[in-house]
Amino acid sequence: MSKSSKVLLFFLGFLCISRPVFPQLLGQDQPPDQPGFDREIKVSFNAGLNSSIAQVTNEFKKLHPKVSFIKDSGATLLLIRKITELNQAPDVIFVADALAIKDRLMPEYADWYIKFYEDRIVLAYSDKSQYTNEINSRNWYQVISRNGVRYGYANPNLAPVGYRTLMVWQLADIYYKEKIGGKTIYDSLKDACPVENIMPDVAELLHLLESLSLDYAFVYESTAKQHNLKYIRLPKEIDLGSDEFSEFYKQAKVEVSNKKSAQKEILSGSPVTFGLTILKAASNNKGAVEFVKFFLGPAGRKILDSNYQTMLEPALAYNIKNLPDELKQFVLPEDIAK
User: 42 pairs with which residues across the strands?
Assistant: First the structure.
């Protein structure tokens, strides 16, 4: 068993014996129905949304002082596994890949989702990183391949930013048409990155970068801006940030583990799109709907803008017929928008 597999098994094993963040989906009596604004709202969200969710929940509480939030932040696929494997039930989940809702939660746990903002992959670095006076969008893969340069990325089995990084490397092969030491760009970068530089999610990756343990890290552009990091913006043909190149992105194929089916899953490249849904088993559906309504409205939009996460206008809904009526004012059906 590889080192990375052992780390993943230990991490999920720890979750299984630790105290659940949320109540179980199955086998638990639900409290009697109460007004949604007098009860807690359970929210799971990708770590890249930490700042935005913190601010949105604070503003929502000003309008509804009796509401309390139970929040769980982490890597998208790990949050989903808590639902599908550990039966832990948030009311609302915000993910870094909207398609993960469709592929991993529907139809058993959810029956709609909303795409609410798009991002792109960039190569971030600090003032102390090596070769910052030389690196650019044309030579970045050559620079980080130099001896002594330390780079890292998120675990592709846990975080969309991780498997999207691998997709960027594959697309770089097609775009640059170059080799590194006789290897493809993808193989060279993947083989040369030590397992200790592959972090569960972007939060841990940023810690290594900011503590100077890494020279470069692959993150979302909004993440780099929020943390005042310098970064290289990659060509739009490979950064997964442009709808214009959706078909080109599909050439990238990355294999990730699917713990529920115990099989490998092949993911194709697509533009970086964050999504949300309210779970079918939400214990506070009314509160969840009102919170998402606030999130998609002017106040939430303003907060996301301040965190460099400009919301789609309108947002795009999949299975809009199942969407709560209160949310339909903010969306268009995804198929019509295309």
Answer: 70
Q: How many CB atoms lie within 10 A of CB 293?
A: 16
Q: Would you say residue 185 has pLDDT above 70?
A: yes
The b/e string for 141-153 (b: 16+ C-beta within 10 A; e otherwise) is bbbbbeeebbbbb
Contact 102, 201 (CB under 8 A): no
Closest CA to 323 of 284, 293, 281, 287: 293
Q: Sorting pLDDT into bands at 50, 70 and 90, what band is 33?
A: very low
All structural domains of the chain? 3-24+33-119+272-337 (3.40.190.10), 124-256 (3.40.190.10)
Is there a contact between 163 and 154 (Cβ–Cβ < 8 Å)? no
Over residues 259-278, the pLDDT tens digits come to 655 678 899 999 999 999 99
Six-digit token string for 142: 């050559």
To the nearest 10°, the Cα dihedral for 28, 286, 302, 328? Answer: 120
